[in-house]
Amino acid sequence: MSRLLCVAAFAAALQPPPRAPEPPRIEKTANYKAAAEASARLAGELKAPPASRKTVAVVGGGLSGLACGKYLSDAGHEATVHEARDVLGGKWKAHRMSFAMRERPGEFTSFEFPEGVPAPLNMAAAILTNTEMLSLVDKIRMVPGLLPMLLEGQSFIDEQDELSVLQFMEKYGMPDTINEEIFIAMGKALDFIDPDKLSMTVVLTAMNRFINEADGSQTAFLDGNQPERVCAPMADRIRDAGATWKRTRPSRRSA
Ligand SMILES: Cc1cc2nc3c(=O)[nH]c(=O)nc-3n(C[C@H](O)[C@H](O)[C@H](O)COP(=O)(O)OP(=O)(O)OC[C@H]3O[C@@H](n4cnc5c(N)ncnc54)[C@H](O)[C@@H]3O)c2cc1C
């Protein structure tokens, strides 16, 4: 009997984990429809006839490699995705928080959460090893605000709901750099609002969740919005080069 249980447990361990529930309206999204249409075409009219099916090695199990493996399989080929690391996902799969640096446009600085180090120690390591954004004094001044969160967890976090991010920073004497470089970007990303209006509970909950989710995705924060930071410089460059751009009515399709 116990041998039977062992075999059953071993078989269960080999099963892939159950799929997370899909958002109910996902099939109505444009991306889903486009991908489903591509898969249907590959599995239908473009399916390779048995004689011309290939064995394909795909190098890299990031999003491109996984998509490639899926579409090749849809088309009837035998694809093997080779991934050097022991996790799939590539760039996405790094326990890291990156921030655009205001003083060095185009450059990011990262907080690396070391593998195998449990929260909250991983956050302490990430803060201590960042040298580009935070000075030693900044790091020391962050301790009074972050230590209670790290020690008490969600109960401390919930109690901060009365404070905006800015009030929390003032209460715990945290340096202005943290607000300018980190919390403005986080506030905008999490709730589209500035730190003087955003509840500190929102930011701390996200941080606490992030430090505990070693299998979560990498997170990056830009230091501004896309129209200002991406589109405006491109438009300027176009104008400087002597070209123009203007807003027009939608052009009519030619026959
Ligand atoms: C924080 C963040 C947010 C992002 N947000 C967006 C977004 O909103 N929209 C968007 O379109 N894009 C976004 N991106 C970009 C997008 O995630 C990347 O463009 C995409 O993940 C790149 O996938 P990839 O498979 O091409 O490369 P990678 O993710 O770099 O994967 C390459 C894989 O190949 C493996 N590998 C390399 N060499 C070998 C080898 N010799 N043998 C075996 N394996 C090898 C690597 O280990 C890695 O797993 C974001 C990226 C980040 C980091």
Automatic annotation (TrEMBL):
InterPro entries: FAD/NAD-bd_sf (IPR036188), Zeta_carotene_desat/Oxidored (IPR050464). It holds the Pfam family NAD_binding_8. This is Amine oxidase. It comes from Aureococcus anophagefferens (Harmful bloom alga). The gene is PDS.
